[in-house]
Amino acid sequence: MNFIDGSLFVENMQKLVITAAPYGPEWQPSDFPEDIPVSLEAQIQKAVDCYNAGATVLHVHGREADGKGSKRLSFTNELIAGIREACPDMILQVGGSISFAPETEGDVAKWLSDDTRHMLAEIKPTPDQVTIAINTNQMNVVEQMCAADVRGTSLDVGTPGYEAYREMTIPAGPAWVEEHIKRLSDNKIQTHFQLANIAQLETVERMMRRGVCNVPLILTWVAIGGGFEAPNIYNLANFVRACPDGSVLTLETSMLNTLPLNMMAMALGLHVRCGIEDNIWTQDRSRKMSTVEQIEQLVRISREFGRGVANGKEAREIYRIGTFYKDADETLAKNGFAPNRKPGQVGFTQHA
């Protein structure tokens, strides 16, 4: 991204898109019972509350009545339908870490092993986005957390939950990723890239150059450590510089890093994410902080910057929801990458 003169003036920035991640799949309901919705009705109401507070993108993870993360496609369908009816303008972004389990003998016979993850493309009604990881990668979400972050919770140091998340990996090899993006695009679902580092961004660019990823580059830099980059100014600057000018970038991190990184995003004209999936504490850890409180805090700070907060319609335009490209040439041009080299062409390539 190029920061030419005036780039830090709010009149030259897009309005702020706030993503809310209020379902906190890594936590047990007992960790924050005041703010972790369990019933279907409560999960739908949480979306409404986030939207009313100022969030226009909802990162969705469904939870069953027993408090465990749902692996039923039928439940996810019901949840998406309920949220869509209650918040028709909100961008619904389903977390791509879900692996559905077959619910009937027919599903067992029909679904191949990869289909338990590819079925994200079969959610009905269709969500606006599904997130995707690029390149198989470690995702040790507790590495960057300190003891005070998890003390007294189901992720306390040494608990089974802590050890499970410490060893977590993301399987995202080339064949699976390309097939998943194809299935999402065929069903008019936008791919939202959740990237750990520049190497993964370069893999996305190569896919676009080969014509197997003809989509807008709507992405999140996930700076959580544990196989992902750390949320420091040097990593951030390098990643932002690597992003082409046509991309739309949101920043994400965890725990007490969340607010400082979001403030940087707001000042730079980028976009933000908050919610109990990322952080459950106030900055002094005096108490837990709900997702709605976190959204309201970002709205206040953005207004102090003088930067407007996008409504649902504006967020859809910024995120280019419903947009897909016909080939590699259009994809590269629209996302701001240099064009592919033509046969016999020498020197650096550029768009006329």
From TrEMBL:
UniProt superkingdom: Bacteria
Report the protein name in the record. Answer: Uncharacterized conserved protein, DUF849 family
Q: Which Gene3D superfamilies match?
A: Aldolase class I
In its UniProt entry, the species of origin is given as Pseudomonas linyingensis
Give the keywords, sorted.
Metal-binding, Transferase, Zinc
InterPro entries referenced in this protein's UniProt entry, alphabetically: Aldolase_TIM, BKACE
As cofactor, the record names: Zn(2+)
GO-annotated molecular function? 3-keto-5-aminohexanoate cleavage activity; metal ion binding
